[in-house]
Specification:
Shape: globular
Radius of gyration: 28 Å
Strand order of the largest sheet: 4-3-5-2-6-7
Structural class: alpha+beta
Distance between the termini: 81 Å
Number of helices: 18
Largest sheet: 6 strands, mixed
Helix content: 25-40%
CATH topology of the largest domain: Alkaline Phosphatase, subunit A
Length: 612
């Protein structure tokens, strides 16, 4: 009996050990292939960028990238896992099976640790973690609050066309023109920068802005260009898509133009929700968002059409021409902000109009983008509104393509592309300027003819003026080092909701959650309805569903209303506005579930605007 018991225990331990070894093997190879794929895909990956993307939702991302991860990482890991399982099955009756089992546990652990350590070392994660606990007063000392600065616009206000060129660098020009390549793959953009203004002084070599920490991915770059600040509150503490606001307390380019009566539109071929772009541009400047989703809804695209990140730049510039004709017919001055996408990593998107001039796909995509942008600018120059329109062409950030710049000399300083076209002012300091993308904020306003008291906004400097940039004042390395640290001011103006768990629960990102539908207010009955269904991840059975409804900030009119159980997993109630004295306003609604154990869970937060 004792032998049988020992044998049973041994079998149980072997079974548990085998399961552990199989799971660890699968995880180890996913980590191993994932780390390799990560560095192959993001050639210049930074830790703050990695943290941002790990915490950002997948909504709006490029589906091809998801499939690439599954193909490059998950599929080979699954294949290896199958081989491991076969090995265990074949070896299960051998005398020293426990040695094989132990090896199946230890080797994956070592492999995982080495992969993680290698990534940790390559990303300088140690310094990153150290800096997250180290505060710098750099931003606090040098930040110029636009709210405290007098900005005077000319009587005849100038329109603005601001084009973010995805991943566009000065690097891609030839060495003769200040680039790093033997052949110039952006000849038209090179000519535009040389003909107009890139703040290179008398030099014929291209000049551009440094992309600093907190600005090296699209939403961080767009934020930096238009606010003069980095998005480096360490995104691990900042899940922008779950926030109710995006730096609500600051004044940005969009805010300033909104106050001056500008009509503002964000035109992009991807989904604006991705990375918090929709939140940022609607909150700061009340932009009309015309993205991929908008194009589908307005039937600008065939039903279910999707390529690359949504639709290609060929269509983007066609839509932009139509939009500009519409904007030019209105009385208000306009700001049309555009973001291209074809040049996004990895290798870009080669549309049907792009000729194959080079051996590699990305060079062809860059060349095609250069040609399309130039063609669009030439079209704008022929329009009546051009005389009163400033155009800003900028790369959003350096490319993250894995191998496009692998042969670039390590001593070459990579910068994002810059060109100001049809500016209202001339350069006063005609030297080769050292600047960052923060400087685009006040410089764009100056190009529109606005006079800026002190010529500084945010961390940026008006490059048309003689005032030194922060880069020229303190040096690029010092500025970079200080921006990698935390800032008390940034934490203050970020205006984050500290209860992150509650935010995540509200948005259904962690349990529990539910789908909430609000019916439109009916003026004839004085009623609007609430329906709750698909309640998930409540620890115990749902006993009661309640709605907390109020409009006053102090919740003095708060009412708790029980929802009726329809017996099919859905709950509903009609809210009679007689109970709120038919007062119009925005009513906040919190949905609570009481489970069978008596525990209370928030499953949703929403609002209803009642116009009585």
């Amino acid at each position: 009996m004792k032998k049988k018991s020992l044998l049973l225990v041994k079998r149980i331990l072997c079974g548990m050990g085998t399961i552990l070894a199989v799971l660890l093997s699968g995880l180890a190879f996913v980590i191993y292939f994932g780390v390799q794929w990560m560095f192959d895909t993001w050639n210049n990956l930074t830790m703050d960028e990695l943290v941002f993307h790990l915490t950002a939702p997948l909504e709006g991302t490029n589906e091809e990238m998801v499939w690439q991860f599954l193909d490059v990482c998950v599929a080979p890991a699954a294949l290896v896992l199958i081989l491991v399982v076969i090995l265990f099955i074949v070896s299960r009756k051998r005398k020293r099976y426990y040695v094989i089992m132990g090896t199946g546990i230890i080797v994956p652990l070592i492999m995982s640790c080495r992969s993680v350590y290698g990534a940790w070392d390559q990303l300088d994660a140690g310094d990153y973690v150290k800096n997250q606990g180290t505060y710098s007063t750099f931003i606090d000392d040098y930040y110029v609050n636009p709210k405290d600065v007098e900005i005077v616009f000319p009587q005849q206000k100038r329109n603005l066309i601001y084009i973010f060129l995805e991943s566009m660098e000065t690097t891609f020009a030839d060495q003769e023109n200040g680039g790093a390549f033997r052949k110039n793959v952006i000849p038209e953009l090179t000519e535009l920068a040389q003909k107009y203004e890139d703040f290179s002084g008398e030099s014929t070599g291209l000049n551009g802005g440094y992309s600093m920490p907190g600005t090296t991915w699209t939403v961080g770059a767009m934020f930096a260009h238009t606010s003069g600040l980095p998005l480096n509150i360490s995104i691990s503490n900042n899940y922008m898509d779950t926030q109710d606001s995006f730096f609500s307390g600051i004044a940005t380019l969009g805010d300033i133009l909104d106050e001056e009566g500008y009509s503002q539109t964000l035109l992009i071929g991807s989904e604006a929700k991705f990375g918090g772009r929709e939140l940022y541009f609607t909150e700061h400047g009340r932009f009309d968002i015309e993205d991929y989703v908008y194009a589908l809804e307005e039937e600008m695209l065939p039903e279910d059409y999707r390529v690359w990140w949504g639709y290609e730049d060929q269509k983007l510039f066609r839509f932009a021409k139509d939009k500009l004709k519409e904007l030019a017919d209105q009385e208000e001055p306009f700001n049309l902000t555009i973001l291209t996408a074809d040049t996004h990593f990895e290798d870009g998107y080669l549309c049907e109009r792009c000729p194959e001039r080079y051996k590699d796909n990305y060079s062809n995509v860059m060349a095609c983008s250069s040609s399309q942008v130039n063609e669009f600018i030439e079209w704008v120059k022929k329009q009546d509104f051009y005389e009163d329109t400033a155009i800003v062409l900028v790369g959003d950030h350096p490319t993250m393509d894995s191998d496009f710049c692998k042969d670039v000399d390590s001593g070459y300083i990579r910068k994002v592309y810059t060109s100001f076209i049809n500016s209202a002012v001339e350069v006063q300091n005609d030297t080769n300027r050292n600047y960052t993308t923060f400087d685009m904020f006040p410089t764009a306003l100056a190009a529109m003819g606005a006079e800026i008291e002190g010529d500084r906004l945010g961390l940026g400097t008006n490059l048309f003026s003689t005032v030194q940039t922060l880069t020229e004042r303190v040096g690029i390395e010092t500025e970079k080092k200080e921006l990698e640290k935390k800032s008390k001011l940034m934490e203050e103006i970020a205006d984050l909701d500290e209860d992150k768990e509650e935010i995540l629960r509200r948005d259904g990102l962690i349990d529990p959650a539910a789908e909430i539908a609000l019916g439109a207010y009916d003026n004839t009955t004085g009623i609007f309805s609430i329906e709750v269904k698909d309640i998930v991840r409540v620890p115990d059975e749902v006993a009661t569903v309640l709605a907390a409804v109020w409009a006053n900030e102090d919740q003095s009119d708060l009412q708790w209303i029980k929802l009726e159980d329809h017996g099919d997993g859905s709950y509903a109630v009609d809210i009679n506005m007689a109970g709120f004295n038919y007062v119009p306003g925005i009513y906040k609604i919190h949905i609570y579930v009481i489970d069978s154990a008596g525990n209370q869970h928030v499953v949703g937060v929403t609002e209803e605007e009642v116009d009585i």
